[in-house]
Amino acid sequence: MDSKNKKQKILLTGGGTGGSVTPLLAVVEEFNHPSPLYKGGKYEFLWLGTKDGPERVMVERAGIKFKTIAGGKWRRYFSLKNLADIFKIKLGFWQALWLMLKWRPNLVMSAGSFISVPVIWAAWLLGVPILIHQQDVRPGLANKLMAPFAKTVTVAFEKSLADYGQKAFWTGNPIRQSMKLAIRDSRFATHFNIQKNLPVVLVVGGGTGAEAINKLVLEGLNDLTQFCQVIHVFGKEKGIRIGIINYFAFEFLDAERMAEALKLADLVVTRAGLGFLTELSYLGKPSIIIPLPDSHQGENAQMFKDAGLVFAQKDLTPEKFTGAIKNLVADKELQKELGEKMGRVMKAGANEAMVKIILELLASNRI
């Protein structure tokens, strides 16, 4: 087969949470979106992830083949689990190496997560080009372990360029094409029985939920539902089932339903995961941001401090939480101001920029 017509194989890896998954899915969706940039290209994708994480459902819904490998996490404190996980990491390395010898990828990509680390090491050993994407402001340990082996590192924020030197490119953070299409869809509120005379507050604690935010919502629910309607995405297996007027509780919302909820929302309450903040920036949604304590989310939240109301979790009581929501939903001018600022936080065009970099890497590695 002529090398110019040969199908290009891209191996994607990440998981454990949805945070390392969504930017890569956004890139795949961009490849599948009609564009002169990659018209006529032939690309095949394969994903390596964890056995029990949420990524399998997300990846397979996107039509991507999914395989699991063993994985371990290195904890920065003493734990006997580190000893067991060393063997899991070694096993994951050999599994990834064997799979790549059979599948022969032209490029390997990761946006973080510990399941990716042995995959990236195996790719480097085989001489396969590697692209790492850095979403958060603070580099995580997984990306620190993988970046030295990468040919290119793309970053969501300009200040992250200093962390990776000349191999780094500021692209912004990609957003799912399915989210863009769903937001533009003419259908409206097909899954929510929303009243038009009350503002809507969407509360999202992340893919696995946020117990502290859930508690604030539930303890303030009697007051909240007097002046607004609450769409509450509380996370997997949290067991919240309350039949109360103006309150809509869900363990999980797929891309289409989340898009509808975002269209409806006058205000969003969220953690500071970069994937969801990117979508809020794209939509220009006024937000209350409560970063996960003692984590990389603190730095993420600081990048949005002028575009949203940022609260430390330890400082919030149900009364203060409810009061902040009440004040913001009542202040249309402040909503407009915060929405406009939110829309300017993230660099635009990340999807296209990342695809161009990928195409350049693939072209430079043709054999």
UniProtKB/TrEMBL annotation:
Molecular function terms from GO: UDP-N-acetyl-D-glucosamine:N-acetylmuramoyl-L-alanyl-D-glutamyl-meso-2,6-diaminopimelyl-D-alanyl-D-alanine-diphosphoundecaprenol 4-beta-N-acetylglucosaminlytransferase activity; undecaprenyldiphospho-muramoylpentapeptide beta-N-acetylglucosaminyltransferase activity
GN (gene name): murG
Reaction(s) this enzyme catalyzes, per UniProt: di-trans,octa-cis-undecaprenyl diphospho-N-acetyl-alpha-D-muramoyl-L-alanyl-D-glutamyl-meso-2,6-diaminopimeloyl-D-alanyl-D-alanine + UDP-N-acetyl-alpha-D-glucosamine = di-trans,octa-cis-undecaprenyl diphospho-[N-acetyl-alpha-D-glucosaminyl-(1->4)]-N-acetyl-alpha-D-muramoyl-L-alanyl-D-glutamyl-meso-2,6-diaminopimeloyl-D-alanyl-D-alanine + UDP + H(+)
Protein name: UDP-N-acetylglucosamine--N-acetylmuramyl-(pentapeptide) pyrophosphoryl-undecaprenol N-acetylglucosamine transferase
Signal peptide: none
Domain (Glycosyl transferase family 28 C-terminal) ranges: 200-341
UniProt organism field: Candidatus Falkowbacteria bacterium GW2011_GWA2_41_14
Residue ranges crossing the lipid bilayer per the database entry: 107-132
Pathway assigned to this chain's UniProt record: Cell wall biogenesis; peptidoglycan biosynthesis
